[in-house]
Design brief:
This protein is an alpha/beta fold and 380 residues long. 54% of the residues lie in helices and 7% in strands. A five-stranded parallel β-sheet has the order 3-4-1-5-6, with helices on both faces. Strands 2-7 form a two-stranded antiparallel ribbon.
Length: 380
């Protein structure tokens, strides 16, 4: 038993993927928010991915026991504060498994758990997922091929999954539309805090959380770099970290205002046929208005007839392509020890508060310098 004060509530933020989870986590992790008369407790790590993964059907039971024991120890120290655990990986967990785990390992919270999720409209989710897979995996498909494959596999049909979460958690489950006009202050971080706290005037001290989508030029560069790094034998996890770091740098530069990915106009009828029923059902089940249906209907207005190739040769200059290849090959040529040192420091700066300001080792700094060089090539 955790012997916690009766007023304490445990909130699981479960995503969905591509709905601003990183911004929510970073703001709570850094404590860059305020609301008079309110407070929230957040762990000393950026997210609760290990806890969420311990609930996967194939996870060893001792892994689950360890993760929930550590969570119980943390909760015991909170002195009545409402606590938040956040990870998109909870979205892939059977909701009944989460509820059973709370009842078994955190019994004092069994009746004081809330679950908050966000859902991104279908077309926007397809575009965002495509961009993410190009960034992190070097996906070689074009946007049309990718969307057709996702539709054929019946991905991003939301209503059955979110209905299951509500069936298990009842009124303790809240689903919010990831649409700027529907969010409190037009910002997902402020909206989450407003939802978690049940009201109050929210101030985000770092300003509105805007996760810039990559431009077509950025996607072309990231796809090219991913290809070279893969040819150089770098493992997927490391390639992921390197390209996410570069994408974050590019999102802060002047080139971030360039042309963005849009839905091809010829896919609009296919999208409407695939997702109209789901949009209507989700609106009827969870929302007072019709945000998902309206968002799907609006796709035709924002769709494009233009070609959106992200092949490096079609988006970037010959000099930029040569420079990016050179940078990627230099990164690949680093020793395994150098690459691990960079990855370890990158993780520390993102996830561990105590080490966030630790100096970068020399062998890691050389890799960071190469990433900065790649960024400069795109800004030239």
């Amino acid at each position: 038993m955790t012997n916690t004060p009766h007023s304490q509530t445990l909130i699981f933020h479960i995503g969905d993927p591509k709905t601003g989870s990183s911004s929510i986590q970073q703001t709570l992790f850094d404590g860059n928010w305020s609301c008079p008369g309110h407070n929230l407790a957040y762990p000393s790590r950026l997210n609760a991915i290990p806890l969420a993964k311990s609930l996967y059907f194939d996870a060893p039971i001792d892994q689950r026991q360890l993760q929930f024991a550590e969570t119980a120890d943390w909760l015991r120290q909170l002195q009545g504060k409402t606590a938040v655990l956040s990870a998109e990986h909870f979205a892939f967990v059977n909701p009944r498994t989460l509820k059973t785990a709370v009842e078994e390992y955190l019994p004092d919270y069994a009746e004081r758990v809330k679950v908050v999720a966000y859902v991104r409209p279908h077309a926007a989710r397809l575009l965002s997922t495509y961009a993410q897979r190009v960034k992190t995996r070097g996906l070689q498909q074009d946007i049309s091929t990718f969307c057709k494959a996702q539709i054929k596999q019946k991905n991003f049909v939301y209503t059955p999954r979110f209905t299951e979460w509500r069936d298990v958690f009842g009124e303790a489950f809240t689903l919010r539309p990831f649409l700027r006009d529907a969010l409190y202050q037009g910002d997902v971080v402020a909206d989450f805090l407003h939802t978690a706290l049940g009201g109050g005037a929210i101030t985000i001290n770092t300003g509105p959380q805007v996760n810039e989508s990559p431009t077509l030029d950025h996607l072309a560069a990231l796809q090219l770099i991913q290809t070279i790094l893969h040819q150089g034998g770098l493992k997927r996890e490391l390639r992921h970290a390197l390209c996410i770091n570069l994408a974050d740098q590019l999102a802060k530069g002047p080139s971030a205002s360039g042309e963005k990915l849009q839905m091809p106009h010829n896919l609009v009828p296919l999208l409407e046929d695939a997702y109209q029923e789901d949009a209507v059902a989700l609106d009827a089940a969870f929302f007072e208005d019709s945000p998902m249906t309206n968002a799907l209907a609006a796709v035709a207005k924002s769709a494009t007839h233009k070609s959106q190739s992200i092949a490096a040769a079609s988006r970037l200059s010959e000099e930029q392509c040569k420079g990016l290849r050179r940078v990627a090959k230099k990164i690949s040529a680093h020793t395994s020890a150098d690459l691990k040192a960079w990855q370890r420091h990158y993780r520390q700066t993102k996830r561990i508060k105590a080490k966030a300001s630790s100096p970068q080792p020399d062998n890691a700094a050389s890799i960071s310098a190469l990433l900065a060089e790649a960024c400069a090539l795109l800004e030239s």
